[in-house]
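Training component of the fellowship. As part of building independent skills, the fellow (R.M.) carried out the full modelling exercise for a liganded target. The chosen ligand was guanosine-5'-monophosphate. The inputs are recorded below so that the supervisory panel can assess the work.
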Amino acid sequence: MNERGMLVVISGFSGVGKGTVIQMVLDELPSLRFSVSCTTRAPRYGEENGVNYYFLSEKEFEKKIEQDAFVEYTKTFTNYYGTLKSEIDAPIAAGGDVLLELNVVGARNIKKLYPDCITVFVVPPSLEALKARLVGRGTESEESLERRLREIETESKDIKNYDYVVTNNVARNCAAEIVGIIRSEHLRPARQNLNNLFPSEE
Ligand code: 5GP
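Fellow's submitted model of the complex:
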């Protein structure tokens, strides 16, 4: 029988560079699949429907809530974000690993539902650098920027609950650390099928 796949949850403040790091991790581990979330926020420049997110209207999102299609969802500010059951259950049952990019609320909920998931929080080398980057990104309105800065304060209180914290100083190094975590987690006895090595007497 196949080993069950592993869920890897990545969180981090807005503007910390999670997107780049996650892409590097996915490139390095071709068997790792990205869980595409649904959101009601508008696509940013370069984002594609079905690749970065499934971009839905509020009505479409609420219909999926009614249909019980989400394993978890949250409403942050004015937008919904949610993970579809279909993005994770079948792949992990088939033995594949799935990477989820979630806020702290989503990570907490997933950890409750899948206690053997691994959670990683990406921090910036300094808060000043992060704020400068967020402003420089230029994709946020003044109001949204304010909210995201407040969110940093709230989210930082949850960092201690994560399994791992990695610093994104150089994206390639940060991605290599996450790849190392995933590979090491696969070496835990509970995640390995050791029956061939030590067949039972029965
Ligand atoms: P952004 O709008 O910058 O893409 O994402 C905003 C926040 O929502 C980020 O912290 C991101 O990790 C989180 N997020 C993205 N998808 C999901 C999801 O499906 N569920 C939850 N709970 N958070 C999500």
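The panel noted the following from the submitted structure. The chain has a mean pLDDT of 92. Helices lie at 18-28, 58-66, 85-93, 104-113, 127-137, 142-156, 171-185.
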